[in-house]
Amino acid sequence: EQLGVEPAEEAGGDEEEDAVQAMERVEAGETGGSPGAPGPEEPGGLTWLVPEGSSSSRVIVHVDLDCFYAQVEMISNPELKGKPLGVQQKYLVVTCNYEARKLGVKKLMNVRDAKEKCPQLVLVNGEDLTRYREMSYKVTELLEEFSPVVERLGFDENFVDLTEMVEKRLQQLQSDELSALTVSGHVYNNQYINLHDIVHIRLLVGSQIAAEMREAMYNQLGLTGCAGVASNKLLAKLVSGVFKPNQQTVLLPESSQVLIQSLSHVKEMPGIGYKTAKRLEALGISSVLDLQTFSPKILEKELGISVAQRIQKLSFGEDNSPVTPSGPPQSFSEEDSFKKCSSEVEAKSKIEELLASLLNRVCQDGRKPHTIRLIIRRYSSENHCSRESRQCPIPSHVIQKLGTGNCDVMTPMVDILMKLFRNMVNVKMPFHLTLLSVCLCNLKALNTAKKGTIDYYLTPSLSTTSRSGKRSFKMKDTHMEDF
DNA sequence: TGGGGTTAT
DNA sequence: ATAACCC
């Protein structure tokens, strides 16, 4: 697959074949009513196929962009196209394009090792996430145009619940069009499609919508990616990665066991992270089958009922978690890692840098953060991942100044952050930090005034804001419940 | 290992 | 405030 050369064409020759094979399977079949639920055919639609309320089965798509940061960099600088490209953060190649992968570069590879493996590797710095973040939200917004229920996972993955959209398309579908229904992209496990099976039909329509989404991503944003269509998030995510770059795959329910059993270790199951995998290993559980067959009671005792029940369901391919619309972000944070920070003045200047960027971001967002947090990582030979944090409310007079250009909001916020800093770090003793991070969270839309407070009854009047910076107020409408 | 994010406890 | 998860 030549990324970006053939616009949104499926990769590999077998893609065409899949569609052809699917057609042949379809044509071999009958086109009559569903054997399980035969009913009168209504004019103008296939509503007879979909007994109301009886179908709890969902259609979910997982959309996963190909080496996202590298794609964004190649769009920013087209001269990079065709060359092996890595995106560097500090001394790590965090991601790279497929040219680089062919030459042996892996994600999260040390720059030294990467250059050794691939001396022609071109590196661009990707420590500033601004352009990646902006492109990421453009993708989410594009997907939200198809259906508003879009859940982000990191910057480069999205889940979309297509159930309703598929239902609508089926209602529009004429019965004579059913026999011509085809899959878009690969069918996992090369499974046979049964057009008498309403679940198959719905997933096929889902695959067509997924193809339209990828086409729109390419045409409108110049981005390629993979998609997986299945009946829940777990399976959609697992199946999206089966054919890799710029291809899509649909999973029919009869092949879901094949899919999850294809995982060689429980750690590969999304939802089972490093810690849980270690604890499972201690119990002698390493394969998906091990987890499926392990005593639920003992598992609950070891991991707690919540985790135990959830991951054991995952091991069967069951995942009833909804696609939760992400909406605007819950928090904004900026972090910087370094070899060593051991003085307060050094920390202060780094904190100022982080905060300045954050204020720009939060200003563009429009909402106001009500909480500020400082996060540090202390140097230590072992236990590298652990962080400490302190947070506090942002004083209301500071919140009000946010977004008003000429007011100095930096000074009071840096003062707060340094108080949090000294609360965590005894600056009279030697210290060694390897990371500083500032987070603005508890975001609220403007003026979320609470009942019973003055602000609830008074609203700022933009038109009468005086030159002196004082604000004038007018009474809000009151309601009976106010009293 | 980087520079982000989320939810649960 | 931390710990787990995700990318």
UniProtKB/TrEMBL annotation:
GO terms for biological process: DNA repair; DNA replication; translesion synthesis. GO terms for cellular component: nucleus. Residues 60-273 form the UmuC domain. Belongs to the DNA polymerase type-Y family. It catalyses: DNA(n) + a 2'-deoxyribonucleoside 5'-triphosphate = DNA(n+1) + diphosphate. This is DNA polymerase iota. It is found in: Nucleus. Residues 1-49 are annotated as: Disordered. GO terms for molecular function: damaged DNA binding; DNA-directed DNA polymerase activity; metal ion binding. It comes from Neomonachus schauinslandi (Hawaiian monk seal). Its cofactor is Mg(2+); Mn(2+). Keywords: DNA damage, DNA repair, DNA replication, DNA synthesis, DNA-binding, DNA-directed DNA polymerase, Magnesium, Manganese, Metal-binding, Mutator protein, Nucleotidyltransferase, Nucleus, Schiff base, Transferase, Ubl conjugation. Interacts with POLH. Interacts with REV1. Interacts with ubiquitin. Its main location: nucleus. The chain holds residues 2 to 484 of 746 of the full protein. Error-prone DNA polymerase specifically involved in DNA repair. Plays an important role in translesion synthesis, where the normal high-fidelity DNA polymerases cannot proceed and DNA synthesis stalls. Favors Hoogsteen base-pairing in the active site. Inserts the correct base with high-fidelity opposite an adenosine template. Exhibits low fidelity and efficiency opposite a thymidine template, where it will preferentially insert guanosine. May play a role in hypermutation of immunoglobulin genes. Forms a Schiff base with 5'-deoxyribose phosphate at abasic sites, but may not have lyase activity.
